[in-house]
Amino acid sequence: MQQVAEVKPSDAGRAISERAFADLLSPLIEPGFRLAFAMLHDAQAAEDAVQEASFTAWRKVGRISDQGRLRPWFLGVVANKCRNARRRKWVADVRLGLPEHLSVVSGEEQSLRGTDLRRAVARLRHEDRLVVVLYFYLDMTLDDIATVAGSSVGATRARLYRSIRKLRPDLDLEEALR
Amino acid sequence: MSLRREMHSAFDEIAPTTAGLPERVVQTVVRQRHGHQRRERWVLRIRAPLSLVAAVVLIALVAAVLVSGRLVQDWNAWHNGVPAGERPQTDIAQLEARPLMLPTLQPNDSCPDGPEANGLWGSGPVLAAPGWTQPKTANELAGNFSTQWGEYWYQTYIVGDQVSGPILARGKDLRTNQRMIFVGNYAAGSVVGSDSINGRLVQQHQELILDMSRPPAKPTTAHKLEWPVITGLAKGSSDCVAWQLDGPDFTEVWVVYVLPDP
User: Closest chain A residue to B26 measured between Cα atoms?
Assistant: First the structure.
């Protein structure tokens, strides 16, 4: 798992320098983008979500006293931006459910299985999709996922199990969690 | 192939490269930050004379509000015989008089959760999302937290700005019949208990009032008003809880299935 750059806690105070901020934020952008992309299935919307989350991070990073929690905190902000992005889209479209065609369709999509899996992930509720993406795509631990989701570890585990059942009803849980 | 490898493969094959993205994002934030600082410096230079003007304007505004408020009250009393300010209380009393129409489930009944779409509870005019839209802590993002008393959830209630009048929210656990409580700015009705949250003593109420004439913020571009709310249930609650929302011309019910620990 990617580690947050080492910055003294005092650097993350209100007068955080540009250099310190860049050092803190840079390693988080790529996982933030991967999370947003898997949640939204749209590269531009994902970049917008990460950019907005970065503005929020700039305003609030000084309040995070434990720098070890910065990564899950930032991913939580990204997840919230993704939810708002989907909500805005829902409100604007006054349309429920999954669009027929996802907005990113690669010309190199070779695997029908991959397409099916992406569609299945996209059909999950926001909270279910979040734990699935964080666990299977960002390879995070349940402890960190619980922090991102603002939930207990037990509830996060239960949500993950249920989401796996929705994705692959016939898959053995132990096999799926490998 | 394991689900993890399938997931990596499924998304990596369509994910665009992130080369240069961290630098681009950080530079945009820093540029924005400089713009913000320049604005602050400009504001500082003219702050002294502006503060005098602001003080005078503020005094004039307060006087105008006091005088006009008095005038409006007199006008209403003269025309309607009902003093201004009493109308909302009357409306709320009418909503409170409506019975709570939430069922009690038998032990083997399944939780009739819904309506829910795209992560939002409800079908309107009131919708709810987990978490707050302007979070200051990780919990407020999407979370719940526990105290010795029980469990609380952060929620955002979303109402179209065309809805008028107060909206009353009440709720209960459908299996244990425990009443739901609300704390914070929009909690209303009699105090039924207290708890310590983040070191602050808070009062618990069984009602929540969304006063559409006094929203917490401007409507969003989609003409929605968003209300940050904290809801709680005492220890011993079950996996099935419900809310009843009463407005001037509607009654809405949400039922939520709470995930049990495995």
Answer: A22
**A154 touches B at CB < 8 Å:** yes
Show pLDDT as tens, one digit a residue, over chain B (262 residues).
688 888 888 888 888 888 888 888 888 887 776 665 555 454 445 555 667 778 888 888 888 887 777 666 555 534 443 333 444 677 889 999 999 999 999 878 888 888 877 667 888 899 888 777 776 666 666 567 788 899 888 888 989 888 888 999 999 999 999 999 999 889 998 899 999 887 889 999 999 999 988 888 777 767 888 888 999 999 888 878 999 999 989 999 998 877 654 3
A54-111 pLDDT per residue, tens: 888 877 766 666 667 788 888 998 998 888 776 544 333 333 333 334 344 444 444 5
CA pair distance A134, A148, nearest whole angstrom: 9
Query: Nearest residue on chain B to A122, judged by CA atoms?
Result: B118
Identify the domain boundary among A73, A96, A119: A96
Q: Which of B13, B21, B262 sits opposite A108 (nearest CB)?
A: B13
Q: Return the pLDDT at B232.
A: 92
- Overall number of domains in chain A: 2
Decide if B144 and A150 are in contact by the 8 Å CB cutoff.
Answer: yes
The backbone torsions φ and ψ at residue A95, rounded to the nearest 5 degrees and listed phi first, read: -135, 135
Note whether B23 and A125 are within 8 A (CB). no
Please state, in angstroms and rounded to a whole number, the distance separating the CA atoms of residues A71 and A76: 8
Q: Kindly report the CATH number assigned to the domain that includes residue A157.
A: 1.10.10.10
Answer yes or no: do A118 and A171 share one domain.
Answer: yes
A25 plus A48 within the same structural domain: yes
Instruction: Give the structural domain span for A170.
Output: 110-178
Instruction: Enter the CATH code of domain B102-257.
Output: 2.60.40
Distance of alpha carbon B193 from its chain centroid, rounded?
A: 21
What DSSP assignment string belongs to A103-140? Answer: S---TT---HHHHHHHHHHHHS-HHHHHHHIIIIIS--
Contact A114 B10 (CB under 8 A): yes
- ipTM of model over 0.90: no
- State the number of CA atoms in the 13 A half-sphere of A60 facing the CB: 16
Query: CA torsion angle for B34, B40, B43, B47 (degrees, to 10)?
Result: -160
Sign of the dihedral defined by the CA atoms of residues B71, B76, B81, B82, in that order:
negative
